Amino acid sequence: MSESTTHDGPIRWKCTVCGFMFTGEKPPKGCPNCHSPSGEFIHERELVPLTYDGIPFDVLIINGSTHRNGNTSVMAEIAEEVLREKGVSFRRYNLSEYQIDNCWCCYAVRAQSCNYPCNNPKDDMPAFHQMLAAAKAVIIASPINWNTMSARLKIFLDRTTCLQNLYHLKKPGLTEGKVAGILVCGHEDGGIKTAMDIFLNLQQMGYILAPFGIAYRTHGAEFNSNADREFFRNDELVKTYARGVVNNVVELMRLDPEGQLKGKIIPVSE
Question: Is the pTM of this model over 0.85?
Answer without folding.
Answer: yes
